[in-house]
Structures are given as structure tokens and as C-alpha cells.
TrEMBL record:
This is CoA ester lyase. Substrate binds at residues 67, 120. Its cofactor is Mg(2+). Mg(2+) binds at residues 120, 146. GO terms for biological process: oxaloacetate metabolic process. It comes from Paraburkholderia acidisoli. Keywords: Lyase, Magnesium, Metal-binding.
């Protein structure tokens, strides 16, 4: 199943790591970047390294991702070295703008690393096709608020429609999983979170960044196929199995290859 919810937790709050893992978040993103003050970054890295060695159960390792500090910052190289030593294989790279830098990070992280490239600037959007094809990158994520500040646009409504479409198009063109949409700042507005998730899904996104555990359930449900969609997919595939070579119709509509492909994606979700 494709990961849908990505829950951030501050890297300098190790007491929250287990709480985050106790949620239904598909990926817990321990954040060494924006969530940690400049004077606490080294200590946060050391605390995380200790937790990765002795505090985290091996069964949870696949759910842990780390957002490192950006390439070129004073903390980046040591962040990556620590993750390589700890054999962390899921890394979120902020300020992704340069495919060569991403390939370099992948090489330093070691074999089988999976990079999520967080695109959050105009330069990153312009270079998105190259970023999507960079070595190690398995998925794109949209840093929508940082992008809006950089571009001088609104961070909600139709202002970001064009950019969101680019994420979906470039992800598909590169053969990546569906991209991850940016955060919703409201943590107690369930209707807004559900609406934002639905909007992202309709664009073609496959997941969403979360900043609070309260957002996780709505995101997971919002990106999952509905019961009606699953039932429809089951009917399509059953009809195909009964008549694999002839024309078939389901619910009064002709079924062709794109419809079958959609049904298979729903079944696999």
C-alpha cells in the first residue's frame, strides 16, 4: 500500500517519537530541520542517533523517515553521516532544487536509500523534472507554504493549481509514486483537513504531510478508496475475468483498458 500520511515530529523531542509511532501515520518524519532551533540541532541529531540505535524497535524501522537539514547548511553533512551509520533508509530532503545534490545525498546515505524530495521553491518547481529523475528519489512532496512565500502567491485556493498539476505530471512521467501534498495548518478543523485531502486526491496526489496526530485519520481515510469505489473495481475485474477477450460493460458503461487499469489501482490501494 502506498503511504498516505506523513506525520512530522520535532527531532529534539525524543519523548514524542513513540507517541508518533503509536498513531496510524504511515510514515513518522523525525524533523531535524525547521522544527529544531539553530542552537539545538547538534543535540537533536545526537539524541536521534541514540534513539535509532537503542530506542526504536526493528519492527518500526520501516515507518521512520528523517528530514535532514538542507544541502549546504552547517548541519547537513553530519545529519547524512549519522543516518548512514544508523542505516536509515527513508530520508526527506528539504529545499530540493538540484538533482546532482540529491544524487550526492543518495550516495552518502548508502545502498537502498529512498529519498523524498521536498520541493518548496520556484527554483525547485522549475527543476522538478530533473529532480524526479534524480538518483535515489522515489517520491516528490510539495512544501506549499514555503513555495508560496518564495513565489509571492497565496498558499490556498486556486493559486497553486498549476503547480500541483506539475507535481502529478512529473511524478507520473518519472514513474514515481503519486506525490505528497503540503500541510494544512489547522489542526482542529476536521472539515478543512478532509476538504484539503479530497482536493489533493482529485488532483492526483497520493498522500499528505501532517503536523499533528489529529490530522492523520482524516488523511488516511481521504486518500483510501471508498467502499463504493472498491465495489465498482471488484465488479469491473470480475466482468473482465469472465470475458477476458471480448467487450465488456459494467453499470451500463463500456469498459476499456484505462478503466481496467483504474480498477486495478483501486484494488491494490
Amino acid at each position: 500500500m502506498i503511504a498516505r500520511s506523513f506525520l512530522f515530529v520535532p527531532g529534539d523531542r525524543p519523548e514524542r517519537f513513540f507517541k508518533a509511532l503509536a498513531t496510524e501515520a504511515h510514515q513518522v518524519v523525525i524533523d531535524l530541520e525547521d522544527a529544531v532551533s539553530l542552537d539545538a540541532k547538534a543535540a537533536a541529531r545526537d539524541q536521534l542517533a541514540s534513539w535509532l540505535r537503542t530506542g526504536m524497535a526493528d519492527t518500526e524501522r520501516g515507518r521512520v523517515m528523517v528530514r535532514v537539514n538542507a544541502f549546504g547548511t552547517p548541519w547537513h553533512a553530519e545529519d547524512v553521516a549519522m543516518l548512514n551509520a544508523a542505516e536509515v533508509r527513508r530520508v526527506m530532503v528539504p529545499k530540493a532544487e538540484n538533482p546532482t545534490q540529491l544524487a550526492d545525498i543518495a550516495a552518502r546515505c548508502g545502498r537502498n536509500v529512498e529519498l523524498v524530495a521536498l520541493v518548496e521553491s520556484v527554483a525547485g518547481v522549475v527543476a522538478m523534472r530533473q529532480i524526479a529523475h534524480a538518483t535515489g528519489v522515489v517520491r516528490l512532496a510539495f512544501g506549499s507554504f514555503d513555495y508560496s512565500v518564495d513565489a509571492g502567491t497565496e498558499s490556498s485556493g486556486r493559486a497553486l493549481d498549476y503547480v500541483r498539476s506539475q507535481f502529478v505530471i512529473e511524478s507520473r512521467f518519472a514513474g514515481l509514486q503519486a506525490p505528497i501534498d503540503g500541510v494544512t495548518l489547522a489542526t482542529d478543523d476536521a472539515q478543512l483537513i478532509a476538504a484539503d485531502t479530497l482536493d489533493a486526491r482529485q488532483f492526483g496526489f497520493g498522500g499528505k504531510l501532517c503536523i499533528h496526530p489529529k490530522q492523520v485519520d482524516a488523511v488516511n481515510r481521504g486518500f483510501a478508496p471508498s467502499d463504493a469505489e472498491r465495489a465498482w473495481a471488484k465488479r469491473v475485474l470480475a466482468a473482465l475475468a469472465e470475458n477476458p477477450r471480448g467487450a465488456i460493460s459494467v453499470d451500463g458503461k463500456l469498459v476499456d483498458k484505462p478503466i481496467v487499469d483504474r480498477a486495478k489501482r483501486i484494488q491494490a490501494a
